[in-house]
Amino acid sequence: MSVEFKAVPAGRAVEIVRAWALHTWPMTADEGVEVYTGLGFRCAGSDPEMFTSDLSPDEDVSYFNSEHGSVFGVRVQLSNLVPEAGWAASLPRSREAFESYAAAFSQVFGAPYSKDSTESSFKAQWFLDNGAGVGLNGNQALMITASVESPEDAEYHLSELEDEKNGIPHDFDYF
Question: Count of CB atoms within 10 A of residue 172's CB?
Answer without folding.
Answer: 11
